[in-house]
UniProtKB/TrEMBL annotation:
Annotated stretches, region: Disordered: 24-50
Superkingdom of this protein's organism: Bacteria
Species this protein is from: Actinomarinicola tropica
Protein name: ABC transporter substrate-binding protein
Membership in a protein family: Belongs to the leucine-binding protein family.
Amino acid sequence: MDERAARRGAAGGCARCRGRVHGGRRGQHGGWRFRGSGGGAGRGAEIEDSTTGVTDSAIKIGIHAPETIGGIDIGDLLGLGDLTQLYWDTVNEKGGIHGRSVEVTLADDGYDANAAQQACRDLIADDLFFASGTFGADQIITCANLATDAQMPYMSLGVAEDGLVDKPGYRAMTMTYDAMSELMAEYVLGEVVEDPQAPVAMVRYNSPSSEVAQDAFTATMDELGSNVVAADAVDKQGNANELTAECVKLANLGVEVVFMILVPTASTQLARLCAEQGFTPQYVTVSNTLSCASEPPIGVPELVGCRSFSAVRVDTTGNTLADEAQQAWADRLPRP
Protein backbone atom coordinates (compact mmCIF):
# COMPACT_ATOMS: atom_id res chain seq x y z
CA MET A 1 0.00 0.00 0.00
CA ASP A 2 1.44 3.39 -0.98
CA GLU A 3 1.55 6.40 1.36
CA ARG A 4 -1.42 8.11 -0.27
CA ALA A 5 -3.58 4.99 0.04
CA ALA A 6 -2.54 4.63 3.67
CA ARG A 7 -3.58 8.24 4.34
CA ARG A 8 -6.92 7.62 2.74
CA GLY A 9 -7.44 4.71 5.08
CA ALA A 10 -6.49 6.79 8.09
CA ALA A 11 -9.00 9.46 7.06
CA GLY A 12 -11.64 6.85 6.41
CA GLY A 13 -10.59 7.05 2.77
CA CYS A 14 -13.10 9.83 2.62
CA ALA A 15 -15.45 7.04 1.60
CA ARG A 16 -18.34 9.45 2.17
CA CYS A 17 -16.86 11.80 -0.46
CA ARG A 18 -15.71 9.33 -3.08
CA GLY A 19 -17.71 9.27 -6.30
CA ARG A 20 -19.57 12.45 -5.49
CA VAL A 21 -17.34 15.53 -5.40
CA HIS A 22 -17.69 17.67 -8.53
CA GLY A 23 -14.72 19.45 -10.02
CA GLY A 24 -12.62 16.79 -8.33
CA ARG A 25 -14.89 14.74 -10.55
CA ARG A 26 -16.92 13.80 -7.53
CA GLY A 27 -19.94 15.33 -5.61
CA GLN A 28 -21.96 15.48 -2.40
CA HIS A 29 -21.89 12.67 0.11
CA GLY A 30 -25.17 10.85 0.26
CA GLY A 31 -25.27 9.91 3.95
CA TRP A 32 -26.80 13.09 5.35
CA ARG A 33 -25.80 14.11 8.87
CA PHE A 34 -28.53 16.57 9.63
CA ARG A 35 -28.90 17.89 13.15
CA GLY A 36 -31.99 18.95 15.01
CA SER A 37 -35.01 20.10 13.08
CA GLY A 38 -32.65 21.36 10.38
CA GLY A 39 -32.64 17.88 8.97
CA GLY A 40 -35.65 16.22 10.48
CA ALA A 41 -33.87 14.56 13.43
CA GLY A 42 -34.27 15.42 17.09
CA ARG A 43 -37.10 17.82 16.39
CA GLY A 44 -38.44 20.16 19.03
CA ALA A 45 -41.98 21.51 19.21
CA GLU A 46 -43.73 22.04 15.91
CA ILE A 47 -45.52 25.15 14.74
CA GLU A 48 -49.29 24.95 14.44
CA ASP A 49 -50.85 23.28 11.41
CA SER A 50 -52.37 25.83 9.08
CA THR A 51 -54.11 26.06 5.74
CA THR A 52 -52.98 29.64 5.22
CA GLY A 53 -52.12 30.11 1.56
CA VAL A 54 -54.09 27.03 0.47
CA THR A 55 -57.41 27.16 -1.34
CA ASP A 56 -59.37 24.52 -3.25
CA SER A 57 -57.55 25.51 -6.42
CA ALA A 58 -54.17 26.99 -5.44
CA ILE A 59 -51.19 26.86 -3.09
CA LYS A 60 -49.27 30.11 -2.51
CA ILE A 61 -45.58 29.82 -1.67
CA GLY A 62 -42.74 32.31 -1.38
CA ILE A 63 -39.04 32.17 -2.22
CA HIS A 64 -36.35 34.70 -1.38
CA ALA A 65 -33.21 34.67 -3.50
CA PRO A 66 -30.27 36.95 -4.34
CA GLU A 67 -31.51 38.62 -7.47
CA THR A 68 -28.77 41.18 -6.82
CA ILE A 69 -25.33 40.82 -5.17
CA GLY A 70 -23.29 43.93 -4.49
CA GLY A 71 -25.30 45.86 -7.06
CA ILE A 72 -24.82 43.20 -9.74
CA ASP A 73 -28.09 41.87 -11.18
CA ILE A 74 -27.31 38.16 -11.02
CA GLY A 75 -31.01 37.35 -11.30
CA ASP A 76 -30.86 38.65 -14.84
CA LEU A 77 -27.56 36.86 -15.50
CA LEU A 78 -28.61 33.50 -14.11
CA GLY A 79 -32.34 33.70 -14.73
CA LEU A 80 -33.28 32.72 -11.17
CA GLY A 81 -36.78 34.15 -11.40
CA ASP A 82 -37.40 32.72 -14.85
CA LEU A 83 -36.14 29.29 -13.82
CA THR A 84 -38.30 29.31 -10.70
CA GLN A 85 -41.39 30.25 -12.66
CA LEU A 86 -40.60 27.72 -15.40
CA TYR A 87 -40.31 24.92 -12.85
CA TRP A 88 -43.65 25.63 -11.22
CA ASP A 89 -45.33 26.27 -14.57
CA THR A 90 -44.23 22.78 -15.55
CA VAL A 91 -45.61 21.35 -12.29
CA ASN A 92 -48.89 23.17 -12.85
CA GLU A 93 -49.16 21.95 -16.44
CA LYS A 94 -48.96 18.40 -15.10
CA GLY A 95 -51.80 18.94 -12.66
CA GLY A 96 -50.13 20.86 -9.87
CA ILE A 97 -50.09 19.41 -6.36
CA HIS A 98 -53.18 17.36 -5.52
CA GLY A 99 -55.02 19.26 -8.24
CA ARG A 100 -53.98 22.67 -6.97
CA SER A 101 -51.84 25.04 -8.99
CA VAL A 102 -48.80 26.56 -7.28
CA GLU A 103 -48.50 30.35 -7.21
CA VAL A 104 -44.97 31.60 -6.48
CA THR A 105 -43.85 34.95 -5.13
CA LEU A 106 -40.11 35.64 -5.56
CA ALA A 107 -38.50 38.29 -3.33
CA ASP A 108 -34.99 39.72 -3.80
CA ASP A 109 -32.95 39.39 -0.59
CA GLY A 110 -29.93 41.18 -2.09
CA TYR A 111 -27.61 38.59 -0.52
CA ASP A 112 -27.81 40.80 2.56
CA ALA A 113 -29.39 40.15 5.95
CA ASN A 114 -31.03 43.58 6.17
CA ALA A 115 -32.53 43.32 2.69
CA ALA A 116 -33.60 39.76 3.48
CA GLN A 117 -35.45 40.96 6.56
CA GLN A 118 -37.67 43.22 4.47
CA ALA A 119 -38.06 40.62 1.71
CA CYS A 120 -39.27 38.04 4.22
CA ARG A 121 -41.61 40.45 5.95
CA ASP A 122 -43.18 41.05 2.54
CA LEU A 123 -43.54 37.29 2.01
CA ILE A 124 -45.08 36.79 5.45
CA ALA A 125 -47.58 39.58 4.78
CA ASP A 126 -48.63 37.77 1.60
CA ASP A 127 -50.27 34.94 3.62
CA LEU A 128 -48.30 32.10 2.06
CA PHE A 129 -48.38 28.39 2.83
CA PHE A 130 -44.61 28.37 3.36
CA ALA A 131 -41.47 30.29 2.47
CA SER A 132 -38.13 29.00 1.21
CA GLY A 133 -34.58 30.34 0.96
CA THR A 134 -31.86 29.57 -1.55
CA PHE A 135 -28.37 30.96 -0.92
CA GLY A 136 -26.73 32.84 1.93
CA ALA A 137 -26.56 31.76 5.55
CA ASP A 138 -27.19 35.22 7.02
CA GLN A 139 -30.28 35.73 4.88
CA ILE A 140 -31.62 32.25 5.57
CA ILE A 141 -31.14 32.54 9.33
CA THR A 142 -32.88 35.94 9.29
CA CYS A 143 -35.83 34.72 7.24
CA ALA A 144 -36.16 31.37 9.01
CA ASN A 145 -36.57 33.11 12.34
CA LEU A 146 -39.01 35.70 11.02
CA ALA A 147 -41.14 33.12 9.21
CA THR A 148 -41.31 30.52 11.96
CA ASP A 149 -41.98 33.17 14.61
CA ALA A 150 -44.97 34.11 12.45
CA GLN A 151 -46.03 30.42 12.41
CA MET A 152 -45.10 30.06 8.75
CA PRO A 153 -43.15 26.90 7.78
CA TYR A 154 -39.75 27.62 6.29
CA MET A 155 -37.23 25.49 4.39
CA SER A 156 -33.88 26.13 2.75
CA LEU A 157 -30.71 24.63 1.48
CA GLY A 158 -28.46 23.63 4.37
CA VAL A 159 -26.28 26.51 5.53
CA ALA A 160 -25.24 27.35 9.09
CA GLU A 161 -26.69 25.44 12.04
CA ASP A 162 -26.48 28.07 14.77
CA GLY A 163 -29.94 29.48 15.45
CA LEU A 164 -31.65 26.91 13.22
CA VAL A 165 -31.10 23.58 15.00
CA ASP A 166 -34.36 22.48 16.66
CA LYS A 167 -36.13 25.54 15.28
CA PRO A 168 -39.83 24.58 15.12
CA GLY A 169 -41.11 24.76 11.57
CA TYR A 170 -37.67 24.84 9.90
CA ARG A 171 -36.26 22.16 7.61
CA ALA A 172 -32.96 22.01 5.69
CA MET A 173 -33.00 20.18 2.37
CA THR A 174 -29.25 19.47 2.24
CA MET A 175 -26.28 19.00 4.52
CA THR A 176 -25.19 22.11 6.43
CA TYR A 177 -21.97 24.10 5.96
CA ASP A 178 -20.86 23.00 9.42
CA ALA A 179 -21.17 19.29 8.63
CA MET A 180 -19.75 19.71 5.12
CA SER A 181 -16.71 21.46 6.58
CA GLU A 182 -15.87 18.35 8.61
CA LEU A 183 -16.31 16.28 5.46
CA MET A 184 -14.15 18.71 3.48
CA ALA A 185 -11.25 18.16 5.88
CA GLU A 186 -11.47 14.42 5.23
CA TYR A 187 -11.71 14.99 1.49
CA VAL A 188 -8.73 17.35 1.33
CA LEU A 189 -6.52 14.94 3.25
CA GLY A 190 -7.75 11.76 1.56
CA GLU A 191 -8.21 12.95 -2.03
CA VAL A 192 -6.54 16.30 -2.76
CA VAL A 193 -3.11 16.77 -1.19
CA GLU A 194 -0.18 14.46 -1.86
CA ASP A 195 1.57 15.33 1.39
CA PRO A 196 -0.48 15.26 4.63
CA GLN A 197 1.57 18.25 5.81
CA ALA A 198 0.84 20.30 2.69
CA PRO A 199 -0.15 23.84 3.74
CA VAL A 200 -3.93 24.28 3.62
CA ALA A 201 -5.96 27.44 4.28
CA MET A 202 -9.59 28.37 4.79
CA VAL A 203 -11.07 31.71 3.74
CA ARG A 204 -14.66 32.50 4.75
CA TYR A 205 -17.01 35.45 4.71
CA ASN A 206 -16.83 37.52 7.88
CA SER A 207 -19.98 36.62 9.79
CA PRO A 208 -20.83 34.63 12.94
CA SER A 209 -22.81 32.26 10.70
CA SER A 210 -19.57 30.92 9.19
CA GLU A 211 -17.52 30.65 12.39
CA VAL A 212 -18.72 27.15 13.32
CA ALA A 213 -17.87 25.89 9.83
CA GLN A 214 -14.32 27.20 10.29
CA ASP A 215 -14.06 25.59 13.71
CA ALA A 216 -15.33 22.29 12.31
CA PHE A 217 -12.85 22.33 9.44
CA THR A 218 -9.78 23.27 11.47
CA ALA A 219 -10.61 20.85 14.30
CA THR A 220 -11.09 17.93 11.91
CA MET A 221 -7.92 18.77 10.01
CA ASP A 222 -6.06 18.84 13.32
CA GLU A 223 -7.51 15.48 14.33
CA LEU A 224 -6.36 14.00 11.03
CA GLY A 225 -2.85 15.38 11.47
CA SER A 226 -2.99 17.88 8.64
CA ASN A 227 -1.68 21.42 8.47
CA VAL A 228 -4.02 24.44 8.42
CA VAL A 229 -1.68 27.42 8.19
CA ALA A 230 -4.36 30.11 7.92
CA ALA A 231 -8.08 30.41 8.69
CA ASP A 232 -9.23 33.90 7.82
CA ALA A 233 -12.49 35.86 7.54
CA VAL A 234 -12.85 38.53 4.84
CA ASP A 235 -15.45 41.16 4.02
CA LYS A 236 -18.61 39.45 2.81
CA GLN A 237 -19.00 41.54 -0.33
CA GLY A 238 -15.30 41.41 -1.19
CA ASN A 239 -12.77 44.18 -0.60
CA ALA A 240 -10.04 44.25 -3.24
CA ASN A 241 -7.32 45.54 -0.93
CA GLU A 242 -8.14 43.00 1.76
CA LEU A 243 -8.30 40.14 -0.71
CA THR A 244 -5.02 41.18 -2.32
CA ALA A 245 -3.36 41.11 1.10
CA GLU A 246 -4.90 37.69 1.72
CA CYS A 247 -3.43 36.38 -1.54
CA VAL A 248 0.02 37.66 -0.57
CA LYS A 249 -0.27 36.04 2.84
CA LEU A 250 -1.36 32.66 1.50
CA ALA A 251 1.28 32.69 -1.24
CA ASN A 252 4.01 33.46 1.29
CA LEU A 253 2.79 30.55 3.40
CA GLY A 254 3.07 28.23 0.39
CA VAL A 255 -0.61 27.26 0.57
CA GLU A 256 -1.58 24.50 -1.86
CA VAL A 257 -5.31 24.20 -1.12
CA VAL A 258 -7.77 26.97 -0.26
CA PHE A 259 -11.12 25.93 1.22
CA MET A 260 -13.47 28.85 0.69
CA ILE A 261 -16.96 29.66 1.91
CA LEU A 262 -17.52 32.97 0.17
CA VAL A 263 -20.09 35.06 -1.67
CA PRO A 264 -19.62 34.44 -5.43
CA THR A 265 -18.45 38.00 -6.08
CA ALA A 266 -15.82 37.62 -3.34
CA SER A 267 -14.61 34.23 -4.56
CA THR A 268 -14.38 35.69 -8.07
CA GLN A 269 -12.19 38.54 -6.82
CA LEU A 270 -10.07 36.27 -4.64
CA ALA A 271 -9.23 33.84 -7.44
CA ARG A 272 -8.59 36.66 -9.91
CA LEU A 273 -6.39 38.73 -7.60
CA CYS A 274 -4.39 35.70 -6.50
CA ALA A 275 -3.82 34.62 -10.11
CA GLU A 276 -2.55 38.09 -10.97
CA GLN A 277 0.20 37.49 -8.41
CA GLY A 278 1.02 34.08 -9.83
CA PHE A 279 -0.66 32.30 -6.93
CA THR A 280 -2.99 29.56 -8.21
CA PRO A 281 -3.85 27.07 -5.44
CA GLN A 282 -6.41 24.30 -5.69
CA TYR A 283 -9.75 25.78 -4.60
CA VAL A 284 -12.38 23.66 -2.88
CA THR A 285 -15.80 24.64 -1.56
CA VAL A 286 -19.07 23.40 -0.12
CA SER A 287 -22.27 22.90 -2.06
CA ASN A 288 -25.10 25.48 -2.06
CA THR A 289 -22.85 28.21 -3.43
CA LEU A 290 -22.61 29.74 -6.88
CA SER A 291 -18.81 29.96 -6.69
CA CYS A 292 -18.25 26.64 -8.46
CA ALA A 293 -21.80 25.70 -9.42
CA SER A 294 -21.09 25.34 -13.15
CA GLU A 295 -18.21 24.17 -15.29
CA PRO A 296 -16.63 26.44 -16.32
CA PRO A 297 -17.49 28.75 -13.39
CA ILE A 298 -19.39 31.83 -14.55
CA GLY A 299 -17.24 34.94 -14.80
CA VAL A 300 -13.94 33.63 -13.48
CA PRO A 301 -11.70 31.28 -15.50
CA GLU A 302 -9.28 31.32 -12.55
CA LEU A 303 -11.71 28.99 -10.75
CA VAL A 304 -11.68 26.36 -13.49
CA GLY A 305 -10.89 23.08 -11.74
CA CYS A 306 -12.42 24.20 -8.45
CA ARG A 307 -13.73 21.18 -6.55
CA SER A 308 -17.18 21.38 -5.03
CA PHE A 309 -19.56 19.25 -2.98
CA SER A 310 -22.40 20.36 -5.26
CA ALA A 311 -25.02 17.67 -5.69
CA VAL A 312 -25.45 18.73 -9.31
CA ARG A 313 -22.78 20.56 -11.30
CA VAL A 314 -23.74 21.32 -14.85
CA ASP A 315 -21.25 21.25 -17.71
CA THR A 316 -22.12 24.42 -19.63
CA THR A 317 -19.52 24.03 -22.40
CA GLY A 318 -21.07 25.09 -25.69
CA ASN A 319 -24.33 26.13 -24.02
CA THR A 320 -25.63 29.34 -25.64
CA LEU A 321 -27.39 30.57 -22.51
CA ALA A 322 -24.30 29.93 -20.41
CA ASP A 323 -22.16 31.78 -22.95
CA GLU A 324 -24.53 34.74 -22.70
CA ALA A 325 -24.31 34.64 -18.89
CA GLN A 326 -20.51 34.54 -19.07
CA GLN A 327 -20.49 37.59 -21.33
CA ALA A 328 -23.04 39.46 -19.23
CA TRP A 329 -21.01 38.79 -16.09
CA ALA A 330 -17.83 39.98 -17.81
CA ASP A 331 -19.59 43.15 -18.96
CA ARG A 332 -20.82 43.97 -15.43
CA LEU A 333 -17.77 42.84 -13.54
CA PRO A 334 -15.00 43.77 -15.99
CA ARG A 335 -11.47 42.59 -15.53
CA PRO A 336 -8.98 45.35 -14.61
